[in-house]
Specification:
Number of helices: 5
Largest sheet: none
Radius of gyration: 16 Å
Strand content: under 5%
Helix content: 55-70%
Number of strands: 0
Shape: elongated
Low-confidence stretches: none
Length: 101
């Protein structure tokens, strides 16, 4: 396998991690769907996958999480981290129940 999928992983994931803190939680479904489609196209180009290969197979082979699952996991991690924070006021603000994006 070429190093291109690893390179795309190193480029794409930090963008979602940093941007998520301010905007991804408020993004509409249509915008998240467009981002997911763009990610699918980029991964497909990175590994030179033909049109008939399913996106789910690409994700499984590359061990890559789909965008929505990734954002949900990162949000849950951030809220867990805030729940363990030393500031009592911050801990009292945290009441998070993970839901589907």
């Amino acid at each position: 396998m070429s190093p291109l999928p690893e390179l795309s992983r190193e480029l794409c994931k930090p963008i979602f991690i940093m941007g998520k803190k301010k905007s991804w939680g408020y993004a509409a479904d249509c915008h998240l769907n467009r981002l997911q489609a763009t990610e699918n196209k980029l991964l497909r180009m990175a590994i030179h996958a033909p049109w008939f290969v399913r996106n789910s197979q690409i994700y499984r082979d590359l061990e890559w999480e789909p965008l929505r699952k990734f954002l949900t996991k990162k949000a849950a991690e951030d809220f867990e981290k805030a729940g363990r924070h030393s500031n009592e006021e911050l801990r009292n603000l945290v009441n998070y129940t993970p839901e589907d994006l």
